[in-house]
Design goal:
alpha+beta, 17-stranded mixed beta sheet, globular, disordered C terminus
Length: 237
């Protein structure tokens, strides 16, 4: 009887160990590779600020800031693939998680725009994936799109769709769905068409973002509209 109990406990321990190993293998942390630095930029991995250089690899917890008339392009691989920081921008990388499930990759990307503005290119995401961009006054949930987001809460959508959750000064929450060719205006908390000259400017920035480096991105395939709601207010479709 004692031998049987020891055997049972041993099998249970082995099973728990194998489950833990499988979980560790499945959940992985991605990285951001610096494809280009134009002008001057710095990074911090939780400590002092240092000069940012092309080819550097940064992980979650890192922050990047650009100077006047400067820009940085990051390659996030399966968690993006690309983000461009424009001048006078500070961006924190909070999450770059990914998990391979057969032929698909489920990701969790969380970026925080503390100042300035970024433009980004995001692949069509698999079910269960999440790509969010925080700003001081809210968060934008993105599913396979080309976008530009500012720290002031302005969101431009060049392709795809974004759900914006914006917190007003009185604490109330506004949720808006922003489609291709539209913008969320934090001054009015409304969705409006992107002015033609502004759209041309953002498209130019996106082309520069996609053209940098050896892993240049081709034209993105526009996905069907999929609404993603931030967990800040719960629920989702």
């Amino acid at each position: 009887m004692k031998e049987r109990m020891r055997l049972t406990r041993g099998v249970a321990c082995i099973g728990a160990l194998l489950a833990t190993v499988a979980l560790c293998q499945a959940a992985q942390v991605g990285k951001a590779v610096v494809l280009s630095v134009s002008g001057a930029a710095e990074y911090s991995q939780g400590g002092a600020w240092s000069t940012l250089k092309q080819g550097q690899e940064l992980g979650p917890g890192a922050s990047i800031r650009t100077a006047h008339d400067s820009a940085v392009v990051l390659f996030l691989d399966q968690n993006g693939p690309r983000v461009r920081l424009l001048e006078n921008t500070q961006l924190a990388i909070e999450k770059l998680n990914f998990e391979k499930t057969g032929d698909d990759v489920v990701i969790e990307t969380l970026l925080d725009v503390k100042s300035g503005r970024i433009v980004g290119v995001v692949r069509k995401l698999t079910g269960g994936s999440k790509y969010e961009v925080k700003t001081p006054n809210g968060v934008a949930g993105i599913r396979g799109t080309e976008y530009s987001i500012g720290a002031d809460g302005t969101v431009y959508v060049v392709s795809g769709q974004v759900v914006v959750v914006y917190v007003k000064s009185d604490g109330s929450v506004v949720t808006q769905v922003v489609n291709k060719g539209e913008m969320f205006n934090p001054a009015t908390q409304r969705v409006e068409p992107i002015p033609a000259d502004r759209l041309d400017e953002i498209q130019s920035e996106l082309e520069k973002t996609k053209a940098v480096g050896p892993a240049a991105v081709g034209p993105e395939m526009e996905p069907p509209p999929v609404i993603f709601t931030s967990p800040i207010i719960g629920g989702g479709n």
